[in-house]
Amino acid sequence: MPASHPKSLSIVIPMYKEQENAQLMLERIHQGLANYTAPWEVICVDDGSPDGTLTALKQAQQTFGQHVRIIELQRNFGQTAAMQAGIDAARGNLIATLDGDLQNDPNDIPRMVDELLERDLDLLQGWRKNRQDAALKRKLPSRIANKLIARITGVKLHDYGCSLKIYRANVLKQVRLFGEMHRFIPVWVAGVTAPHRIGETVVTHHARQFGESKYGISRTFRVIIDLLSVFFFLRYKARPGHFFGSIGLFTGAVGALLMTWLLAVKFIFGEDIGHRPMLSVAILMLVMALQFITTGVVAEMLTRIFFQNNKGKNFVVRNICEQETDKSWQINHDVNQTKP
Question: What are the strands of the beta sheet with 94-97, ordered from one edge?
Answer without folding.
Answer: 198-202, 123-127, 165-168, 94-97, 9-15, 40-46, 68-73, 317-321
